[in-house]
Structure prediction request, 224 residues.
Amino acid sequence: MRSYDPFWERPEVVERFASRPPDDRMVALLSDAPRATRVLDLGCAAGRNTEWLAREGFDVYACDASQAMVAYTRKRLAPWLGEAEAERRVLLCSMDHLAMFETESFDLVVALGIYQQAQSTDEWHRAVAETARVLRAHGRLLVQHFGVGSQPWPDPLRQVEPFVFEASVPGAGMRRFVLLDEATLDAWMAQHGLVPETPTRSTTRPTEEGGFWRNLHALYRKRQ
Prediction:
């Protein structure tokens, strides 16, 4: 496992993620789901989705590689689950090493804005392989992933290897991302037994620096 980026420990970054509402796609997907549905919020950040899941009564677990994000998410869950249960359910871990979770133990993994943080395609595949391992047969994976063609900052993204890009980010130094197109995302997911349940689509989201991210939105189901 690689060392973690200290950018995610900054209080202002935690607060920025904490202020975001629950994801609309996740809320719609689970609107009529049984509350016994077991959900993993992978890369939970400051808990915007984890808290909604706990408040709605789902059997939710969460993990993130940032100590600050984990602490904040535990604090958000404490009023709904109690401090001890929040600590048990929100764990510190990297996306490519989910050894604390049993094989085929989740009905749904929510992975919004996490896989593109891989620093190599090898790390990306390790992360998705771990996701597939912890999903039950026919379990679902809800994904948001940054896409090829994004131009979020004034300095252009520079391709350093196929599908791997880096850029100098204002206030955060050099950052690296795995950026995919829709067809490649679907093809790579299929290598891990995850097939599209709905067509993968893209949207564009502006950034504060005057650029934009292409966001890929996908829903996969694990083959039996």
